[in-house]
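Here is the promised in-class demo. Please do not try to memorize the tokens; focus on the logic of going from shape to residues.
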């Protein structure tokens, strides 16, 4: 039996007419299956939709018994329809009943039909339904017929996902991932609760026009877009070559290969022949590709298929003109950013005034994007698997940075509950604000210096709002990461002078540039590294690129003229590195003196303690430095050989491990012995229970994100330090992986809020 004389193009046009009718959704679906059956000269056409992620329900049929609609259901993997859904592949059978997976559903009356052609309805490579045609005679459907049915399925996928069938969806509670509410669990990256609307960091491309009016024109559009794509890939490769060296460009070679791949181009042209627009054709081929990608185990092949997916996205952007990044677009005033991952600089591109929250699929709590989120006071949750797939731009979403929960398209009751939580949170903040001018002194009279971590001018008001004693860590690299080009002397000087001015005499510890690893500057050439966290970074870059360090030191010295200046160096691994950095400061100072520039009243130099090797050089180091600051984020990472940004390894080792606490106790003891001030400025200082442990092992100065000051101070005011210390000390000798539950129990028994 030949394919209908009308061909797929006419079918697509008619489908569009049906969809435009002002009729209830079920009626439209009934008309759609009738139309497809007629067009394919089939006696049966049935549509199954996936519900609750596992049940395929018969939604409409022409030819089978109508009573079976919304009654016949199959599990994924069950029967022919379930097999198609599970494998995301068509089944073309001349005798369906002899197939081993065939399952007889008596209510449908399908026993009289022999030939069977079923195709998956795919969206983003995921099956959301199955479309079937059947005939009485035993025959094999042609390849063209199979193609045509797949194209029709794609158009249906858009209809189902677009919500045009909302009435049906509501009536039978259709459970397409993109309509349903979802509660997802992740890890807390930054405290706070936010209600808002989704903005995808890398927006999905919206295709509204799938059905072609003019086939030759669509082919021409495709050719032009492919040419533009090929050109952009060339530019990318040339750019990469000059920026990062031939090695990186090599990686892009596969990109070039795919952009010229004849098979890919041919399949897209053929898809246009079936009646799709150029963008419809790209998506049609991309769907097949994605379905294949999900099934492939070999990680190399999957990577290649994902390159191809990336190229298809670029092609769609060219065709639809949706080239803008989300940051440049019009953001809603309650933006909740959703992304697989992003660097700290990407986050800084967004308008802070409109950002309410952040949800990431990857990223751990001590990754720099998390630190920037905390600095900006944006509630954030990380390690939320699969979130990008199920959200659409504009979806309502709730981010609970306390519990690490994310609610996508929340129900009314969840939204109410969270609005109440937000009010509770605000009341709590008001209580913390009332503590602003209360000195942080333990119940037994020990004063603790509470400082904040900062790095941007927007952080400065927090110094006063929080009542902190000073800035324990000023991450100077953040300004550099935000800039479009390397900030010149005057720009840097201005920045530091503004920071010092707005601190109103409170002390600030400026950390010199800590570049490398995930803190990359777009304008600074950085080699590709296998182990960037342990690579060419921080002080290692600064001592090799002396001019860069000298410029920054010059800017700091001049900005602090007439004031005290505190500076510290990141990632020092040897006392000699501190000495070398100190010599740079002395050289710059001498030069400024010679030029008769006014100088700071005093210059205090310190180091971060982040590299374990330094722990065995403390006696030497402490004789030379004015102060030290423990960077527990990096120190933990190197101590346990455990990547701080690795989402899967979050929580693998506890900061309340007795080894970590003993080590900090030892640093505190040595520093005291040498009368050198010691601070801790890693993320652990901002969590009350961990801050309590730090005080318990002898630290008297800690530095944290501004939002943590209130909760930490409440803990300090309730703590009897000496009692806790004698409780903690014997526990440090234990071989346990963590003392968390013991410390929690102490806090509970002594009514200490943690
Ligand atoms: C640290 O490593 O603990 C630290 C404070 O520095 P950063 O997080 O910027 O690496
Ligand atoms: Mg560090």
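The designed amino acids, position by position:
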């Amino acid at each position: 039996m030949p394919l209908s004389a009308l061909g797929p193009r006419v079918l697509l046009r008619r489908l569009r007419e049906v969809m435009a009718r002002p009729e209830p959704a079920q009626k439209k679906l009934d008309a759609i299956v009738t139309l497809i059956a007629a067009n394919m000269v089939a006696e049966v056409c049935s549509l199954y939709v996936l519900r609750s992620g596992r049940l395929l329900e018969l939604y409409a049929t022409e030819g089978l018994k109508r009573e079976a609609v919304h009654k016949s259901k199959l599990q994924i993997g069950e029967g022919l329809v379930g097999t198609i859904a599970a494998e995301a592949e068509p089944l073309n059978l001349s005798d369906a009943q002899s197939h081993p997976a065939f399952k007889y559903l008596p209510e449908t009356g399908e026993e009289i039909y022999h030939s069977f052609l079923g195709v998956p309805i795919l969206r983003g490579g995921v099956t959301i339904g199955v479309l079937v045609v059947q005939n009485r005679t035993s025959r094999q459907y042609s390849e063209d017929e199979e193609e045509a049915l797949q194209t029709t399925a794609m158009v249906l996928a858009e209809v189902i996902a677009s919500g045009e069938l909302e009435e049906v969806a509501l009536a039978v509670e259709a459970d397409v991932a993109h309509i349903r509410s979802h509660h997802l669990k992740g890890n807390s990256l930054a405290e706070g609760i936010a209600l808002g609307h989704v903005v995808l960091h890398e927006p999905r491309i919206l295709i509204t026009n799938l059905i072609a009016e003019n086939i030759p024109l669509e082919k021409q559009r495709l050719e032009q877009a492919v040419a533009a794509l090929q050109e952009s890939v060339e530019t990318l490769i040339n750019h990469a070559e000059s920026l990062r060296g031939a090695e990186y460009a090599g990686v892009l070679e596969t990109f070039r290969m795919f952009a010229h791949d004849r098979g890919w181009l041919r399949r897209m042209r053929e898809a246009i022949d079936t009646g799709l627009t150029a963008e419809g054709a790209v998506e049609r081929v991309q769907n097949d590709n994605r379905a294949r990608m999900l099934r492939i185990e070999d990680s190399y092949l999957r990577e290649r298929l994902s390159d191809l997916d990336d190229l298809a996205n670029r092609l769609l952007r060219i065709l639809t003109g949706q080239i803008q990044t989300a940051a440049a677009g019009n953001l809603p005033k309650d933006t909740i950013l959703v992304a697989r991952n992003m660097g700290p600089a990407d986050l800084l591109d967004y308008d802070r005034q409109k950002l309410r929250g952040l949800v990431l699929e990857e990223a751990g709590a001590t990754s720099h994007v998390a630190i920037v989120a905390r600095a900006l006071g944006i509630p954030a949750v990380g390690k939320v698997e699969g979130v990008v797939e199920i959200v659409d731009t504009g979806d309502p979403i709730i981010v609970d940075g306390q519990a690490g929960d994310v609610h996508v398209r929340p129900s009314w009751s969840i939204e109410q509950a969270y609005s109440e939580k937000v009010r509770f949170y605000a009341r709590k903040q008001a209580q913390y604000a009332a503590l602003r001018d209360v000195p942080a002194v333990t119940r037994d009279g020990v004063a603790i210096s509470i400082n904040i971590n900062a790095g941007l001018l927007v952080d400065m008001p927090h110094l006063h709002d929080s009542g902190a004693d000073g800035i324990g860590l000023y991450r100077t690299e953040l300004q550099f990461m935000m800039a479009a080009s390397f900030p010149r002397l005057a720009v840097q000087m201005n920045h530091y002078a503004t920071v010092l001015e707005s601190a109103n005499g409170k002390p600030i510890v400026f950390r010199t540039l800590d570049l490398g690893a995930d803190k990359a500057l777009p304008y600074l050439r950085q080699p590709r590294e296998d182990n960037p966290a342990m690579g060419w970074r921080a002080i290692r870059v600064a001592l090799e690129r002396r001019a860069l360090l000298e410029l920054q030191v010059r800017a700091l010295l001049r900005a602090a003229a007439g004031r005290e200046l505190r500076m510290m160096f990141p990632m020092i691994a040897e006392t000699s590195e501190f000495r070398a950095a100190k010599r740079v400061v002395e050289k710059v100072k001498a030069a400024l003196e010679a030029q008769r520039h006014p100088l700071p009243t005093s210059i205090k130099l310190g180091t971060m303690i982040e590299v374990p090797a330094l722990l065995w050089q403390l006696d030497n180091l402490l004789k030379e430095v004015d102060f030290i600051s423990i960077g527990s984020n990096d120190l933990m990472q190197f101590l346990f050989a455990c990547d701080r940004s690795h989402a899967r390894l979050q929580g693998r080792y506890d900061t309340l491990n007795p080894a970590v606490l003993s080590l900090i106790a030892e640093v505190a003891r040595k520093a005291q012995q040498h009368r050198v001030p010691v601070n801790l400025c890693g993320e652990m200082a901002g969590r009350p229970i961990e801050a309590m442990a730090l005080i318990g092992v002898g630290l008297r100065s800690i530095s944290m994100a501004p939002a943590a000051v209130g909760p930490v101070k409440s803990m300090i005011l309730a703590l009897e330090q000496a009692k806790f210390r004698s409780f903690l000390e014997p526990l440090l000798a234990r071989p346990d992986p963590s003392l968390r539950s013991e410390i929690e129990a102490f806090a509970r028994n002594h009514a200490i809020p943690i």
